[in-house]
Amino acid sequence: MQKPSIPKGTRDFSPEEMAKRNYIFNTIREVYHLYGFQQIETPAVENLSTLMGKYGEEGDKLLFKILNSGDCFSGITDEELMERNAVKFAAKACEKGLRYDLTVPFARFVVQHRNEITLPFRRYQIQPVWRADRPQKGRYREFFQCDADVIGSDSLLNEVELIQIMNEVFHRFNIHVSIKMNNRKILTGIAEIIGEIDKIVDITVAIDKLDKIGLENVNTELREKGLSDEAISKLQPIIQLTGSNEEKLEQLRTVLAASETGLKGVDELAFILKRIEATPIQAELEIDLTLARGLNYYTGAIFEVKALDVQIGSITGGGRYDNLTGVFGLSGISGVGISFGADRIFDVLNQLDLYPQNALQATQILFVNFGEKEEKYLLPLVAQTRAAGIRAELYPESAKMKKQMSYADAKKIPYVAIVGENEITENKVNLKNMQTGEQILLTIGELIERF
């Protein structure tokens, strides 16, 4: 018989892993609620007409498509079948697909429900997404996204609040982070100034590698991409920008003096920094010109969060986009959003062992079962314990004491309550600390008090 397995790029989560994941989701959810964000959910399955063409050609290839139920061959000729053209076949045989991210479904949601929502609309969504990608370490075919967006408002106060949210979440996790920020308008301004506006993607891809390959190699790569020596020399002061955030902004004002777009980007960052000063944050906040994020998507401020004590890619990212709903025929709705990478945060918390003990929500006390008489005596006590918010179990059979103790050990249950003839007579419970081995006789009221 074949051993059961799961598809590549998917995972099972054990009770302990689920407890850790729920700690992550609940922490993020609590902070979203503090800032007035409301939760929505969208179906796992969307119409392919909603998804196709929204993620570029590469993205379209990574969509999981679902065969039409019933006769998926209806409407397909024998000639078309003989062609064996997978793309054409899918276009006719599949009407639905699994969602690839939460942003496109959100855009669809906004357009479909625009008469029911109040703008600015602050929504968050924590759900799995699917990509038919090649699975590798840290990259899965099914993973969760935790998005928050504010749409229908151009105010930069939204950016300020999203920085505060990122700061608050990582402060609660005890993870030291650096929040990097940049502005798409500054990147456009840089390309304008050096006269290479059509090479903006090449420029940012090269600059992005500065800390990995060094300045010389960055310049070589720019030359290979067809930038003139003059353009490259104009880029040098920009690439080598150092100093505090304020100093960087001052230098940029000089360098970008001739670019209206670039200066607008500088002003936007200056505004955000000024407002953040009013409510200081624990995280490092750093202007980083090498930060580009998926360029075609964003139009204003962009963010990325790096963990400082662990080698890992960005653990949160986001930014301002101008036309979320345009693809569905409702133009002019600007938005700004962030997405926490739950899987990477999970890895960071594991590596640094930062889970609080009580977050794992395991059983706190096991009542040992000696038989029918004891069972009857214990049931109301267990109910009382649970009513007080203590996580309790009564062992379901009157098995050997050793077996029940091994069960408590295996489940890492810290306390065991032992009740036999004597305890029943005295109306008490013998509480054993599984780590120290010490035992103490208590009334049920005292036991509850202890916890």
Structure in a nutshell:
By secondary structure, the protein is of the alpha+beta class.
Please describe what this structure looks like.
The chain has 451 residues and is of the alpha+beta class. The chain folds into three domains: 15-41 and 100-352, 2-Layer Sandwich (BirA Bifunctional Protein, domain 2), CATH 3.30.930.10; 45-98, no CATH class; 362-450, Anticodon-binding domain (Rossmann fold), CATH 3.40.50.800. The chain is 43% helix and 18% strand. It contains 18 helices and 16 strands. The chain has helices spanning 15-34, 48-51, 56-61, 78-83, 86-93, 103-112, 157-173, 184-193, 200-207, 210-224, 229-239, 245-255, 260-278, 342-352, 372-387, 401-410, 421-426, 444-450, and strands at residues 38-39, 45-47, 65-67, 94-98, 121-130, 142-151, 177-183, 284-287, 301-307, 316-321, 335-340, 365-367, 392-394, 415-418, 429-433, 439-442. It has an eight-stranded mixed sheet. β12, α15 and β13 form a beta-alpha-beta unit. The longest helix has 20 residues, at 15-34. The chain starts with 14 loop residues before the first helix and ends with a helix.
Number of strands: 16
How many structural units, i.e. domains?
Answer: 3
Separation of the first and last Cα atoms: 49 Å
Return the CATH class of the largest domain. Answer: Alpha Beta
CATH superfamily of the largest domain: Bira Bifunctional Protein, Domain 2
Which fold does the CATH topology of the largest domain refer to? Answer: BirA Bifunctional Protein, domain 2
